[in-house]
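Hi there, hope your week has been kind to you so far. For a while now I've been wondering how a particular protein folds. I'm sending you its amino acid sequence along with the backbone structure tokens. Could you read through the record and tell me how the tokens relate to the sequence? Take your time with it, there's no hurry, and the full record follows here.
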Amino acid sequence: MFKYIKNDLPASIVVFFVALPLCLGIALASGAPLFSGLIAGIIGGIVVGALSGSHIGVSGPAAGLAAIVLTAIGTLGGYENFLVAVVLGGIIQMVFGMLKAGVIAYYFPSSVIKGMLTGIGIIIILKQIPHFFGYDADPEGDWAFFQVDGENTFSEILNAVNFISPGATLIAIVALAILILWDRVLSKKSKVFQLVQGPLVAVVLGILYFSFTSGDAQWGISAEHLVSVPIPDGLESFAGLFSFPNFSAITNPEVWITAFTIALVASLETLLCVEATDKLDPHKRVTPTNRELLAQGVGNSLAGLVGGLPVTQVIVRSSANIQSGGRTKASAIIHGFLLLASVILIPKLLNMIPLSVLAAILFVVGYKLAKPSLFKTMYNSGWKQFVPFVVTVVGIVFTDLLIGISLGLGVGIVVILIKSYQNSHFLHIEDKSNGVHKIKMTLAEEVTFINKGAILKELDRLPENSYLELDVRKTRFLDNDIVEILEDFSSKAKTRKIDIKIISERGVVENPKSYIEFFNLRPKKTA
């Protein structure tokens, strides 16, 4: 696991800086204790990272569950009661894994997965714009279009114009310049710049800037624009940051409903992320999805037992890991230990990191997920790829992740139906000879009820005094609905002077008396 430590260690540091504000922000957006987000990040990194079969996936608290958590805490009568649902949700996820439910991941179209990655990239950039300029009214990790502060994604950006912090903006611009320089130039010059990552340098400069400008009314950075990690005062105080489930609430039906909801949504988000990260993986490794559900289930049960938010595999952390050169699961595990060590040893230092610097880091992550060139590539792939892709992107930007994916998947299914409708048969019309129109219709390999309309339309358009040659030699599945159409058409064919010849693997038959009987015949066994 530590074979590629020179790749995984720098990547884990970048993931740590990406994960830290998101853990805190998602906890704040969920109405949960701030420390619960850090617990989820630590367990997602260390426990899920160790059990997972994913080489580059990183788990932690998920923005997609924030609304569910916020509602459930109020409905169930407190955070301790909610933790029971998290424990049960983890157990249900383990059952999903044992039932091999991970196969669902393979049924999402590539265009929708690419749309998901692009949509998340755009959302990251849009959501970080206010933080970049020092406007932090909405917590980090709130990815929904309608935000917890009452604004939406675009109105928040407009509001930020009136609350620009000069100090936060200045250090953000410097940090972004460092990140671009590091990525485009310095990392190609020397291995030293590959080992020491640009995000680490940007964060260190941010801390130094805060230290030297502290107290400056114009260029200083006030506390509300900094990371805010709970600071324990000794081990006893640290232990007091943990919460524990109230198992007396286990008889409440609402707890079980919430548990199933968490298990279902967390599993779907994880499977979507697994499919997306596997596509991003430059080494094209495949994650065992059932094992991933088991790992996530163990992680959620453990998180619930010690006061953490529910976890999923998360695309933002995972893509940051891939972009930073992470090779194995060691990077995810090390990032979890970094979260744990930093909370215990250096919480005061963490609270000196400007949020605007972390926004600059996320800008780069977002851009690499949503490169403009991808839109051109998808457009050139044809409308059947481009339309589901765009619908997914727009749906994610203007609603949330799961709704956007559902819209894209719905459009993808419609596209498949249209394609199936169009590809049910091939028609070849030969020249008219001796007053008879010769027409050959070749059916596809699989013809279902979806193709009824297209085939019926072609049959009705056949001219009188025609000779139809129906070739079904390549057809492996012919729906009974199609056979009934042919049966009904046979009576019309007689009145319109249309003769029909069927060519199949069973032989050649002209004007069969019963199409249903003909297609139900089985080839005779040969000695």
Observations:
- Residues 253-280 form the longest helix (28 residues).
- Strands lie at 59-61, 311-313, 425-429, 437-443, 446-447, 466-471, 477-478, 498-504, 507-510.
- Residues 5-409 form one domain.
